[in-house]
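The instructor's notes for this session suggest beginning with a concrete chain rather than abstract definitions. Hand out the sequence below and ask the class to guess, before any prediction is shown, which regions might be ordered.
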Amino acid sequence: MRSIFKFSLTAFAALLLFVAVTNAQIADKKSLTLEGARTVIAGAKQYAAANKAPGGVIAVVDDGGNLVALERIDGTFLAGANISVGKAKTAVMFKRPTKFFEEIIKNGRTAMVALPDFTPLQGGVPITVDGQIVGGVGVSGAASAVQDEELALAGAAALTDHKTTPVKFIDAKTVADGFAKGSVLEDGSNGENYMVHASRREKPGMSEVHELDTDIIYVLDGTATFVTGGTSVDPKMVAANEFRGTMIDGGETRQLKKGDVVIVPKGTPHWFKQVDGAFLYYVVKVR
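After discussion, reveal the predicted structure:
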C-alpha cells in the first residue's frame, strides 16, 4: 500500500513537471484584430485632419507582416499604397521604426537596400501593446517624410490609448430639432463604422449611390415614392465614393409610409422620386 502511494506521488510530481515545462514552452500572445487596425487608421486620419495633412495612405499589418487594413486619403498618389504596406512590414519584421534604417543607409550602409521585402523609408512604426509588438503601421504620401511618421505614430498611439467607446445619449429635444431641419446625429468622426442621420424631406431629391455605405432607413412620418436599383442618370461625383444623378432609369418602385424599414446595400442607386409633404426618417449608414 505504501509503495503504491509512493508511486502515485511520483507520478503526480512527474505530471506537475510536465505541465510546468509545457506552459514554459507556450506564451500568451496578443493579436491585432480588424477592429484594432481600424482604430489605428482612425487615429492617423484624425491627426491628419487636425494638422491639415494633404493626403496619405495608411496601412496596418499584423505581427507576421500580413496586411490587415489599408485606407487611402483622397488625393494621395496611387503608389503610396505599396509603399505604406512596405513601411509597415519593415517596421514590424525588424521591430524598429523605418526611420532608423533610412538613417543607417544615409550614413553609408547601402548594402541593406538589397534585403528582401525591405522599405527603409521614414513613416513606418511598430505597434506595441503591453510590451508586445502586435503589428505595424506605415504611412506614405503625406506632406513630408516627417509627417508620414507623425501620422503613423498617431495611429499606433490610438490603439495603445484606445478605451471602450462611451455610450452616447441624444435627448429628445435634440432629436426633434434635428428632424425639424434635417441633421446628422452621429457622424462617425471617432472611428465608428456607422453614422446616424435625422433626415427630413419635403420634395423629391436626386438619385444617390454610396459606394461604401449601406443605408438602413426607418420611416417616422409621411409618405414617399422610393426607387431602388436601375441605372442612375447623369451621375456626378460629389464627394469621395458618393455620386448624385438626376433620376433613375428602371429600378423597383415602393411607396414608403410610417413604420416602414428599407435597407439599401452599398453601391445600389436609390431615389426619392416623390415626397408628399414632410417626410421624416432615420438613416443609419453602415460602412
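Then share the key points. Confidence is low (pLDDT under 50) at residues 1-7. The longest strand covers residues 270-286.
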